[in-house]
Amino acid sequence: MSVWTINGGNKLFGDVKAQGSKNAVLPIMAAAIITGCETELINCPELSDVGAAMDILRHLGCKAERRDGAVYIDSRGMNRTDIPHELMREMRSSVIFLGAILARAHRASISYPGGCELGARPIDLHLAALKSLGADIQEQGCNINCFDSGLIGTRINLKFPSVGATENAMLAACAAKGETVITNAAREPEIVDLQEFMRKLGVNISGAGTSVVTIDGFGTRRSVKHKIMNDRIVSATAMCCVAVTGGSITLNEVVPADFETAMAALEYMGCDIERGECTVKITCNTALRACYPIVTRPYPDFPTDIQPLLMAACLTAAGTTEFTENIFENRYRHVPEMCKLGADIVVEDRVARVTGVKRLQGAEVSATDLRGGAALVAAALGADGRTVIDDNGHIARGYEDFDRLLANLGADLSYRA
Q1: How many helices (H) and strands (E) does the chain have?
Q2: What does the pLDDT read at residue 178?
Q3: Which has the closest alpha carbon to 399: 374, 378, 368?
Q4: How many CA atoms are closer than 13 Å to the CA of 8, on its beta-carbon side?
Q5: How confident is the model over 343-374, as pLDDT tens digits?
Q6: How large a percentage of the chain has pLDDT more than 70?
Q7: Residue, of 254 and 90, whose pLDDT is higher
Q8: Would you state the torsion angle of the CA atoms of residues 115, 118, 119, 120, taken in this order, to the nearest 10 degrees?
Q9: Residue of 116, 240, 271, 314 with catalytic role
């Protein structure tokens, strides 16, 4: 059982280099199997979700190991097409392997994925995309079996710009004969990073970062090297922590545009933000005011992953901030725990209204998911006294050495895995 002990009240100062992106590396690790080759992924974060993906690769018959901050994958020996339930349940994004296995072996068998319990996260969009390409999909209880006798390029119109469904369609379309066009595609920066990796694999693909992605043709490569983009959610998390505590930090080797919506919200609340070409400096020396209404939507609008972190920054801001969560219906599971710290939050369906209080008070709380757990850490950094967070390993799924990062900035905390 992972436990955080945090003594709040310290301001944060220093420099931060964001880790490699969790949301980028996982689909890229899956993409490494669409052809038999050797892959080196540098700037790869050391996360439990990355470890789970490596376990899946090894089960499939691939070699996967970590050396000096990089992950090495050799998919030439892949000899299985199934992923058992005990591996699928380790992370919700494990479903991304479905399209990759299908592209490589023309058949795949998985169970429904696990991970954070954020409510319904249906994969019907994933399956519909694969069916459009000609896959025969049979669902038996919790198991999904996919077969194809030759995928055919087609036009896939996603009903919702799902990141996972876009990625699965991109991967499966590599094996399709003819051109595939994905419309209403997700536009997240991580989709662009996946495209860049796929191009290195020999895939003729374009359009990532827009709502239309085109895949047409695939030539193989024997070896590929790719640097994973830095994590925009971790960057926004660090900024929200400073908004809670006060202080000043500089984020290095970042792409400011990737998390502009978070910066704009913090700026409105009273933080001073300086944007450079690949740096961002945030300084918070005054009391914050409530933010304008926050509505989570697909990129480039406000990300659901940052919503709990910004909420932590609003807990002591003067006035009331209204959040509307449109992506996950259970994204407010951190709210009762924040209220134990003295927060004033009222939830009605998808809307949460946060009225700032003068002070938060340390307490014993529990993290129920990855981003909610990180938000509790942020809130605890600004609370009076000691907070103990029962984490159950959630934060380690997406944050590499988060305790060390915060301690280096001046936080008074300890972490027991």
Answers
A1: 13, 23
A2: 96
A3: 374
A4: 25
A5: 999 999 999 999 999 999 999 999 999 999 99
A6: 98
A7: 254
A8: -60
A9: 116
Instruction: Fold for 3-19+230-416, please state it.
Output: UDP-n-acetylglucosamine1-carboxyvinyl-transferase; Chain (3.65.10)
| Confidence label for 149 from pLDDT (cuts 50, 70 and 90) | confident
Element (H, E) at 371: helix 370-381
Residue 366 has a pLDDT of 98
CB atoms within 10 A of CB 174: 25
Tell me whether residue 37 is one of the annotated catalytic residues. no
* Whether pLDDT at 110 is above 80: yes
Q: Say if domain 22-227 classifies as CATH 3.65.10.10.
A: yes
Q: What is the length of the chain?
A: 417
Q: Hey, what are 135's tokens?
A: 């896959």
**Other C-beta atoms within 10 Å of 78: how many?**
19
Domain ranges of the chain: 3-19+230-416, 22-227
DSSP, residue by residue, 50-61: HHHHHHHHHHTT
Nearest of 180, 34, 177 to residue 108 by alpha carbon: 34
Q: Do domains 3-19+230-416 and 22-227 have the same CATH topology?
A: yes
Asked if residue 300 has a cis previous peptide bond (ω within 30° of 0), the answer is yes
Query: Quick one: what percent of the chain has pLDDT higher than 90?
Result: 90
- pTM of the entire structure? 0.96
Token readout for 107 is 């058949």
